[in-house]
Amino acid sequence: MKSVKELSTETKIQNRLKNNPVCLELVNYLFNDAELQEMQEYANNVSIRRLGYNDHGPVHMRQVVGNAIKMLNILHDFGIKTSLEEEEIGTFDDSMCAVIMAGLMHDLGMAIGRQNHEELSALLAIPIIDRTLMHMFPNDLHKRVIIKELTTEAIIGHMSSHRINSIEAGIILIADGCDMTKGRARIPLSMNTVPKVGDIHKYSANAIKWIGIHHGERKPIKIDIEMISEVGFFQIEEVLLTKIDVSPAKKYVELYAGVEGQERKCYL
């Protein structure tokens, strides 16, 4: 059974896509895919209980999709084309479909382990991608091919370890980095575990109060982060910034962060 957080996040995603019938049909199909749900939940079990990491399950993957939809729509509002549009081989909806699928499947590989999990995620995702695209575009081989390949690039590229070249994959990279609020570290921190290397990720994520993604002032996308303590700067400087730095979408992003009640620091 899906959690309240999962369902509320799904509703937010559906509302953001209410004027996009193709992508709304896609998310509804994937939200009702029982195998994908089981895979997301098992990946989260391994991530939290076996490996001691933050949430890498259904809630996180939905949060990434929500972040990515926001950012892609902002670029669209500013008249900035996606890579598929710029290359004249696909539409904005095609790009959005790839971003949605990548967001919902990018951490499936955590079910096997942390090392190279982005490649393992792509491997596990392929059958779901194939059947989803056949459902959505049964008579359009071109769409199925370009969306599948773009989705795969975004999944493999979400850890900054593989060079990516599309705006769409770059958006997923940043959207993943933006899911680092305290809720993501709640379960790992509540478990009785022996202190170990890597705990800084849990404690720093727990210091992030909220993250806002808005239309920017100097650049199209503005990311605004508020934290309850300075330990949260670790998440920004060691996680989010490293992802933004290698993202093809970096030039469209401005980034601000600070402790509540204090002046924001401008990173980008």
Quick check: average pLDDT? Answer: 92
Backbone shape = globular
CATH architecture: Orthogonal Bundle
Number of strands: 4
Q: How much helicity do the residues have?
A: 55-70%
Number of continuous helical runs: 12
CATH class: Mainly Alpha
Strand residues, percent: 5-15%
Q: How does this structure look, described?
A:
There is one protein chain. With 268 residues, this protein is α+β, with helices and mostly antiparallel strands. It has a single domain (4-266), classed as Hypothetical protein af1432 (Orthogonal Bundle), CATH 1.10.3210. It is built from twelve helices and four strands; from the N terminus they run αααααααααααββαββ. A four-stranded mixed sheet has the order 1-2-3-4. Helix 4 (58-77) packs antiparallel against helix 6. The radius of gyration is 18 Å and the shape is globular. 46% of the residues are buried.
Any chance you could write out the topology, listing elements then pairs?
Elements: H1 4-16, H2 21-31, H3 34-50, H4 58-77, H5 83-86, H6 92-105, H7 117-136, H8 141-156, H9 167-177, H10 186-190, H11 199-206, E1 208-215, E2 221-227, H12 233-245, E3 253-259, E4 265-266
Parallel strand pairs: 2-3
Antiparallel strand pairs: 1-2, 3-4
Name some characteristics of this structure.
Hypothetical protein af1432; 268 residues; four-stranded mixed sheet; 57% helix; 12 helices; 4 strands; alpha+beta
